[in-house]
Design a protein that fits this description.
The structure holds two protein chains of two kinds. By secondary structure, chain A is mostly helical. Chain A contains 13 helices and no strands. In chain A, helix 6 packs across helix 7. The longest helix of chain A is centred in the middle third of the chain and has 39 residues. In chain B, the strands form eight sheets. In chain B, strands 8-9-10-1-11-24-12 form a seven-stranded mixed β-sheet, sandwiched between helices. Chain B has a five-stranded mixed β-sheet with strand order 20-19-21-13-22. By secondary structure, chain B is α+β, with helices and mostly antiparallel strands. Helices cover 27% and strands 23% of the residues of chain B. Chain B contains 15 helices and 26 strands. The N terminus of chain B is likely disordered. The longest helix of chain B is centred in the C-terminal third of the chain and has 18 residues. The chains are: A mainly alpha, B alpha+beta. At the A-B interface, helix 2, helix 4, helix 6, helix 7 and helix 10 of A face helix 1, strand 10, helix 6, helix 12 and strand 21 of B.
C-alpha cells in the first residue's frame, strides 16, 4: 500500500507540474492580456503600459515562466492583476465556501442518486421506475443554472423559504452568535446545494440503477431470493452493497468537479467560491489567478482519484492483488 | 434490535442550544440600514487607482472631495457646487483658486484635515508611480500648495471655464499623515486600500471579499449626521439574480438595474420605486479611418466621407434603439451620453432615409455589377467586418440589426463576435473595419479629446478619426474663458463631427435605480448615483427589522 501511495504521489506531482506549465503558456499565447480588455471607461495608454511593466508582461515569456516557478516554489502564487491582492488570499477567502457547497451538493447527490437508483432497480420496468426515469432524465437534461433560477423564483421569491443567494445574511451576518451564524449559513446553502446535487445526482441515480440491475441478474442474488429472504434485506444487503462499489469511482470523479467550483451555480446564487473567482479571472485575464486555480483543480482531480483508488482497494481487496 | 442515532441527537441538541442564543443587538436612537445590490467585485478602496463605479459607490462614502458638483452636473465655473472639505473658496485671479478647508473636518483617526493633505493628494495623483487614470486630467493645474494650515491654493496653466471642476472633481483628498509613510509603488496594494481611513460620512467596518462590504455612519461627521446608520453592499457576479433580493426584501437599493427585463421586473415590486436617470453612455458603430492591413494608409472604404454619410442615412437608429433597449434608451445625439450638459444642444442629425441612401450609393458609383447581391465599384465589393465583444448582448444585437438594415441596399456586413480581451486587442491595434463601441464619459464634454481628436489617436481614438477643424473647435471649447464662447465652440465641434459621420451613433441607454419606498430624501446624481446617499433617511414610522440592528463594535 505504501509503495502504491508513493508511486501515485510522484505521478500526482508530475501531473500538477505539467498542468501548471501548460496553463502558464496557453493563457499567454491567447490573444490579449489583462490590459487589453476594453472597458467602457477610458484608461490612459501610459497606465496600461505601466501595469504591463509592473507585472512583467514586457519580459520574454520564458523569463516570466522561470520567475513564476521560482515564486511558486516558495509558495507565492503572485498578485491578482485585478485586485492587486495576493492570489493566495483570494483563494483562502473562496475555498471554504466551495468546500461547503461541494460537500453539500455531494451529500444531496449521493443521497438522492443512490436512493432513487435503488428504488428504480427494485421496481424495474414498473410504473414507478418509468416515472423516476423521467425525473432523472429531466434533471440530467436541464441546465443547472436554469434549475437554480427556477428554485430561486419558486422557493425564495414566491414561497420565501430560503434566501435568494449569498453565503450568509449580510445584515445580521457576524452580529449573531457563532451557532446562529452556522445555522444561517446552512440555510443559505440549501438551494445551491440542492440544485447542484440534484443535477449531478440524476447521473448517480442512472448509474446506480444500471449497476443494481446488473447485480440483480447474478447467481447469489437469485440464491438470496430462493432462500426466501425479505425483499428489503435482499435489495439492501445483497444488491445495493455490491452495486455501490462502482459508485466509489463516481465519488472520486465528482469530488474534484464539485470542489473546483460550479461556476454557473455560484453565479446564480451569488455564492462566492472558486468557480466565481475562476470565471472572473478568465474574464479579466488575471493570469496568476487562472494559473493558481487550474493548479488547484488539477491537484483536486489527482487527489480525488487517489482517494477513490484507496477506497476501492479497501472496499475490494481483490484490486490489491491485481 | 434497538439502534441509536448519535449524530441526529447531536444535531437536534445543537439546534436547541442555538435557538436559546441572544438575538442581534438593537439600535438606540440612531438607526437605519440600507442593503445595496451591486454587480461586480470591489477590488480596491484606494481612490487614485479606483476604476469601477462599484468601487466609487463605496469609496465616495469614505473619502471626500473639496467640493461636489450639484445634481445638474454643471462643470462650468462653480455654479451649483456644494462645499465638502472646503468650506469656501476664492477665485484670486484668472489662474488661481484658494480653497479654505473646513476647520471641523477630521480624518477618521481623529487628525484634522489640512491644506497639506490637499497638496499631498495632488502630488500623489500626478506621480507616475501612482499610476492613476485621473492623473492626466489634472495636467492643466500647475501646482497645489498649502498657503497655511487651512488654505490650499490651486494654480492653473491658463484661464478656462472648467478650472473649478478640474480642481475639485478628479481627486478625493487623501490623508498625508498616513500615506506619506508608505512608498508610492506600494500604496495600491497596501492594507490602506483594504482598510482606508477617510474623512467622509461613513467608515469601513467589514469587507468580506466578493460577498459584502459594510460601512458604519460617523455620527460626528462635520457636515451633519448621515441619514442611515449602516450601509451594506451585497455583491452579485452579474445582473442575473440582482432583482430577486429586492423582491424578497433582502435588499433595498440598486443604483443601476442591468437589462430591460430586470427593470420591468423591478417595476412590478410594490415596495420598490424605480427611478430613471440619464447615463454617461453612448453606443455607436465606429468606422476605421485607416486600413487595418496597413495602418499608414487610409481605409479602402471608410476614408470616403460621402460613403460614411450614406451608410449612416441607411440606418434607422430609432428602430434599433427600441429593438435593443425597449423604452430604456434614447437615440444617441452626438459623442456624449444624455448625462452631459451638452446633450441638450440642438444638433442636426443625418436623417434616416433608406431611399436617399440607396440613391447616394448609386451616385457614388456603387452598383451590383456582378449580380451577387452586393454592391461593388472598381472591382471592390461594399463588404466589411464589424467587431463586437461577445460579452455585450446589446452591441451584438445592434450589429445584427445594422447588418439587416444594410443588406437590402446591397451592403454586406459580417458581424464578428470576439472574446473581450481579443476585442480589446484588435480595437487597440486598429485591426477592424468597423467596431461596436460604448463609452461612458466624465461629466465634462472634454472627455472627447481622448476619444475623437487627432491627439486621441495615441489614446482611445481607435477609429483614427482626424479632422483639424474639429480639433480646433474642441481646443477652443476647452480653453474658452466664458460659457457662451464655450458653448459656441462645442456646438461647432459637434456639427463637424456629425457632418463627418465617423461613426453611426446608435443608442444612449438610460439608467434605472431601484429604491425601497421606506427611504426619503432620495436624490440621485447621474454620474455616480451614490454621491448623495449619506443624506437619504428612513421615513418616520417606516422602519423595518434590519433598520433597528446595530453593530456594537464600530
Amino acid at each position: 500500500m505504501i509503495r502504491f501511495l508513493a508511486i501515485r504521489l510522484v505521478q500526482a506531482v508530475a501531473i500538477v507540474f505539467l498542468v501548471v506549465t501548460a496553463t502558464f503558456f496557453l493563457i499567454r499565447l491567447a490573444p490579449g492580456d489583462p490590459y487589453t480588455t476594453v472597458t467602457d471607461r477610458h484608461v490612459p495608454p501610459e497606465v496600461v503600459d505601466y501595469n504591463r511593466h509592473l507585472f512583467g508582461f514586457d519580459q520574454p515569456i520564458a523569463r516570466q515562466y522561470v520567475t513564476y516557478l521560482r515564486r511558486l516554489s516558495h509558495g507565492d502564487l503572485g498578485l491578482s492583476h485585478r485586485t492587486f491582492r495576493p492570489v493566495a488570499e483570494r483563494i483562502r477567502g473562496a475555498l471554504p465556501n466551495t468546500i461547503l457547497l461541494g460537500f453539500g451538493a455531494l451529500l444531496v447527490n449521493f443521497a438522492f442518486g443512490i436512493a432513487v437508483g435503488a428504488v428504480q432497480a427494485a421496481r424495474y420496468d414498473q410504473r414507478l421506475d418509468h416515472l423516476l426515469s423521467l425525473v432523472t432524465l429531466t434533471l440530467f437534461s436541464i441546465p443547472a443554472f436554469w434549475l437554480g433560477l427556477l428554485a430561486i423564483d419558486l422557493l425564495a421569491v414566491n414561497l420565501g423559504w430560503f434566501p435568494t443567494g449569498g453565503t450568509m445574511d449580510v445584515v445580521t451576518g457576524d452580529l449573531l452568535p457563532f451557532g446562529r451564524q452556522l445555522l444561517q449559513r446552512l440555510h443559505h446553502l440549501v438551494l445551491p446545494a440542492l440544485t447542484l446535487g440534484l443535477v449531478s445526482g440524476a447521473w448517480t441515480a442512472r448509474y446506480m440503477r444500471a449497476e443494481m440491475l446488473d447485480v440483480l441478474a447474478r447467481d447469489y442474488v437469485r440464491t438470496a431470493w430462493a432462500k426466501g429472504l425479505p425483499p428489503r434485506r435482499v435489495v439492501i444487503h445483497h444488491i445495493a452493497r455490491t452495486a455501490l462499489m462502482p459508485i466509489v469511482t463516481l465519488f472520486g470523479m465528482f469530488v474534484p468537479v464539485l470542489l473546483s467550483g460550479a461556476v454557473f451555480i455560484e453565479y446564480v446564487f451569488a455564492w462566492h467560491g472558486l468557480g466565481w473567482e475562476a470565471a472572473k479571472a478568465v474574464e479579466t485575464y488575471d493570469y496568476p489567478m487562472i494559473t493558481a486555480l487550474t493548479t488547484l483543480t488539477a491537484a483536486m482531480v489527482v487527489l480525488g482519484n487517489l482517494v477513490a483508488d484507496i477506497l476501492y482497494r479497501i472496499a475490494d481487496p481483490r484490486t490489491v492483488s491485481s | 434490535m434497538s439502534r441509536s442515532h448519535p449524530p441526529l441527537v447531536a444535531l437536534l441538541g445543537l439546534v436547541g442550544t442555538l435557538a436559546a442564543c441572544e438575538p442581534a443587538p438593537a439600535c438606540d436612537g440612531y438607526c437605519g440600514t440600507a442593503v445595496i445590490v451591486t454587480i461586480g467585485d470591489v477590488g480596491t478602496l484606494y481612490p487614485p487607482v479606483i476604476g469601477t463605479n462599484q468601487e466609487w459607490e463605496v469609496a465616495d462614502q469614505i473619502f471626500l472631495r473639496l467640493a461636489d458638483m450639484g445634481l445638474n452636473l454643471n462643470t462650468v465655473g462653480d455654479q451649483g457646487f456644494v462645499p465638502k472639505l472646503a468650506s469656501s473658496w476664492t477665485f484670486e485671479d484668472s489662474v488661481t483658486i484658494a480653497f479654505r478647508i473646513d476647520s471641523a473636518a477630521r480624518w477618521q483617526d481623529g487628525q484634522p484635515v489640512t491644506a497639506e493633505d490637499v497638496a499631498f493628494t495632488f502630488a500623489v495623483y500626478r506621480d507616475p508611480a501612482t499610476n492613476s487614470s485621473a492623473g492626466h486630467l489634472l495636467d492643466r493645474i500647475v501646482s497645489v500648495t498649502a498657503r497655511d494650515k487651512q488654505t490650499a491654493v490651486f494654480r492653473f496653466t491658463h484661464p478656462y471655464v472648467e478650472q473649478f471642476f478640474d480642481a475639485t472633481h478628479h481627486m478625493r483628498i487623501l490623508p498625508k499623515h498616513i500615506l506619506d509613510t508608505i512608498p508610492p509603488l506600494q500604496r495600491a496594494g497596501h492594507e490602506f486600500a483594504r482598510h482606508p481611513i477617510g474623512s467622509g460620512p461613513y467608515r469601513l467596518v467589514r469587507w468580506v471579499s466578493q460577498e459584502a462590504i459594510e460601512l458604519a455612519a460617523d455620527s460626528n461627521f462635520f457636515l451633519g449626521r448621515p441619514g442611515l446608520a449602516r450601509l451594506i453592499w451585497r455583491t452579485f457576479p452579474d445582473g442575473t439574480g440582482m432583482v430577486a433580493p429586492l423582491e424578497t426584501g433582502e435588499a433595498d437599493i440598486t443604483g443601476a438595474i442591468i437589462g430591460p427585463p430586470n427593470v420591468d421586473r423591478a417595476r412590478q415590486i410594490p415596495h420598490i420605486r424605480v427611478i430613471e436617470y440619464p447615463s454617461p453612455y453612448y453606443g455607436y458603430m465606429g468606422f476605421n479611418f485607416r486600413n487595418p492591413a496597413d495602418r499608414t494608409r487610409p481605409h479602402p472604404l471608410f476614408h470616403d466621407r460621402a460613403l460614411r454619410r450614406a451608410l449612416t442615412m441607411a440606418i434607422d437608429r430609432v428602430a434599433i434603439t427600441r429593438a435593443v433597449w425597449g423604452e430604456y434608451a434614447v437615440p444617441a445625439k452626438g459623442p456624449m451620453g444624455p448625462m452631459l450638459r451638452t446633450f441638450a444642444y440642438h444638433l442636426p442629425q443625418i436623417p434616416y432615409d433608406s431611399a436617399a441612401a440607396r440613391a447616394e450609393l448609386a451616385r457614388l458609383g456603387w452598383r451590383d455589377h456582378d449580380g451577387d447581391g452586393v454592391l461593388d465599384r472598381d472591382g471592390q465589393a461594399l463588404r466589411f467586418d464589424v467587431i463586437a465583444p461577445a460579452s455585450s448582448g446589446s452591441r451584438i444585437r445592434s450589429a445584427v440589426l445594422i447588418q439587416g438594415q444594410l443588406q437590402p441596399l446591397g451592403v454586406a456586413v459580417n458581424v464578428v463576435e470576439l472574446a473581450p480581451a481579443v476585442f480589446g486587442q484588435r480595437a487597440q491595434d486598429g485591426d477592424f473595419d468597423a467596431i461596436m463601441m460604448t463609452w461612458g464619459t466624465d461629466p465634462t464634454p472634454s472627455t472627447i479629446v481622448e476619444l475623437w481628436t487627432t491627439d486621441g489617436i495615441a489614446a482611445s481614438n481607435w477609429d483614427a478619426y482626424s479632422n483639424p477643424e474639429f480639433d480646433r473647435y474642441v481646443e477652443q471649447a476647452r480653453n474658452a474663458r466664458d460659457s457662451t464662447d464655450e458653448r459656441t465652440a462645442w456646438e461647432a465641434a459637434y456639427r463637424i463631427f456629425l457632418d463627418d459621420a465617423p461613426a453611426i451613433l446608435l443608442s444612449s441607454p438610460l439608467m434605472n435605480a431601484a429604491v425601497h419606498t421606506r427611504f426619503e430624501n432620495v436624490t440621485i446624481r447621474p454620474d455616480l448615483w451614490a454621491t448623495t446617499l449619506w443624506t437619504w433617511r428612513i421615513r418616520p414610522g417606516a422602519m423595518i427589522d434590519r433598520d433597528r440592528l446595530v453593530r456594537r463594535d464600530p
